[in-house]
């Protein structure tokens, strides 16, 4: 029998990791073992900076964020806390409001980043109004805490360890407020975290734009409108405390009166401005001296090298002459168009036909005249516009007869009304927003017919499968 002897001399062995991205080496001797492990290189989809850049492209796809992205892992969930939409709606209605519904609202408000509030309390005497204001005080405190890096990091770490991570506190980013009276003056100091503000004023009011921009330094979108009155916008507009450019990107003003020099001063400090819509501007009591000059404003925009995505300019009582030229001069690549009309008039229709069919947003601002054709031009445009994504025409009419593909609806027409009722299929299958009125030509007694409802919602569900805002 032969014996085999093995050498016990020192032997140095190194192993190469199978993963080339891992810098791990091992050295073994007869006396000791030393292991030096280098930090592995993270994958691209684990780096927060890269992920945030990717997720920013999904801001226009909230359903993807809600239904897919945040469910992948905890890291993706926490990175998208500021992108997830958590909306609360409160309408002041003494008949339906209760202490229970208010308690539910105030308990959810710390997690919400979007609030729609329709107030009917101009004197701030409603107990519900006072409780909501008290709840908004917490938003102000959370914003101040977010400015302290140490406190913000501690709060974030605490939320990650929480057993109920879905209830993490956030900041209010969007406010849509319908009000009259003193409410906005009381709310404004609590809104420092806002990035989007829409004010719908019932009646007339005075809004100090400089105070709004100073109180909301992160504001990206500002919309002021009144449907029944006039909004006064006194000087100054630019906050005196502002020494850096403002981040404002969208400015929409409707039924307002102001000095154009203030608007031009504001444009100087908003180099990122992309949407400028001046709707139904009101003149002062002296009709001989107009407050507004579109030519001067466009020259000012050109001098500042500001190229807009969407633009609208109209003065109360004036016709829509040269509206196409106004848009193309200030926003030559605009895909968002707004017109003062109930229906697409022949002039407006000719404008849309002259440009490539790439309009993604169409808004009709009713000037107060009835529509004799019941939205025929609009219906025909929708049947030929596959690229449209958003239609905002809350005063325009769509006939139920034009949705009745199978001819199930055949009521007697109103006396003296002869219009084209031919049904058609809208081509805008990717439409996400639809604001419109639905009429029928029959008696008002059949408005609640179940057949009518089935035609309407059956048509919408089949023709517009991507609809999100109805």
TrEMBL record:
<feature type="region of interest" description="Disordered">
    <location>
        <begin position="1"/>
        <end position="37"/>
    </location>
</feature>
<feature type="compositionally biased region" description="Low complexity">
    <location>
        <begin position="14"/>
        <end position="33"/>
    </location>
</feature>
<protein>
    <recommendedName>
        <fullName>F-box domain-containing protein</fullName>
    </recommendedName>
</protein>
<dbReference type="InterPro" id="IPR032675">
    <property type="entry name" value="LRR_dom_sf"/>
</dbReference>
């Amino acid at each position: 029998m032969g014996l085999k002897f093995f050498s016990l001399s020192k032997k140095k062995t190194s192993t190469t990791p199978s993963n080339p991205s891992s810098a791990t080496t091992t050295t073994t001797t007869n006396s000791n073992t030393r292991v030096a492990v280098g930090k592995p290189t993270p994958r691209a989809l684990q780096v927060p900076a890269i992920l945030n850049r990717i997720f920013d492209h999904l801001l226009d796809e909230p359903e993807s964020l809600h239904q897919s992205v945040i469910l992948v892992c905890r890291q993706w969930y926490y990175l998208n806390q500021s992108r997830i939409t958590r909306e609360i709606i409160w309408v002041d209605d003494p008949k339906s409001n209760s202490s229970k519904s208010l308690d539910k609202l105030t308990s959810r408000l710390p997690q919400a980043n979007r609030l729609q509030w329709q107030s009917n309390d101009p004197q701030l005497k409603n107990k519900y109004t006072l409780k909501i204001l008290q709840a908004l005080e917490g938003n102000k405190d959370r914003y101040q805490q977010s400015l302290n890096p140490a406190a913000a990091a501690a709060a974030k770490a605490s939320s990650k360890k929480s057993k109920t991570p879905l209830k993490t506190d956030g900041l209010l980013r969007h406010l849509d407020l319908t009000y009259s009276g003193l409410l906005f003056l009381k709310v404004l100091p609590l809104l420092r975290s806002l990035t989007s503000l829409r004010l719908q004023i019932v009646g007339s009011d005075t809004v100090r734009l400089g105070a709004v921009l100073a109180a909301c330094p992160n504001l990206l979108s500002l919309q002021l409108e009144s449907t029944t009155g006039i909004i006064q916008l006194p000087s100054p507009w630019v906050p005196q405390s502002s020494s850096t450019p403002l981040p404002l990107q969208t400015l929409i003003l409707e039924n307002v009166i102001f000095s154009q020099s203030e608007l031009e001063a504001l444009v100087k400090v908003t180099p990122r401005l992309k949407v400028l819509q001046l709707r139904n501007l009101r003149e002062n009591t002296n009709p001989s001296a107009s407050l507004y000059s579109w030519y001067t404003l466009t020259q000012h925009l050109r001098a500042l090298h500001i190229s807009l995505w969407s633009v609208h300019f109209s003065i109360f009582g004036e016709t829509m002459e040269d509206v196409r030229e106004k848009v193309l001069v200030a926003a030559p690549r605009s895909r968002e168009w707004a017109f003062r009309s109930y229906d697409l008039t022949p002039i407006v229709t000719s404008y849309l036909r002259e440009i490539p069919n790439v309009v993604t947003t169409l808004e009709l601002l009713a000037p107060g005249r009835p529509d004799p054709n019941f939205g025929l031009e609009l219906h025909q445009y929708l049947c030929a516009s596959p690229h449209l994504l958003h239609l905002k025409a809350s005063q325009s009419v769509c006939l139920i007869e034009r949705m009745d593909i199978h001819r199930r609806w055949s009521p007697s027409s109103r006396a003296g009304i002869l219009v084209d009722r031919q049904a058609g299929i809208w081509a805008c299958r990717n439409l996400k927003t639809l604001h419109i009125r639905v009429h029928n030509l029959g008696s008002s007694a059949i408005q609640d017919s179940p057949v009518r409802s089935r035609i309407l919602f059956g048509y919408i569900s089949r023709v517009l499968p991507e609809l999100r805002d109805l």
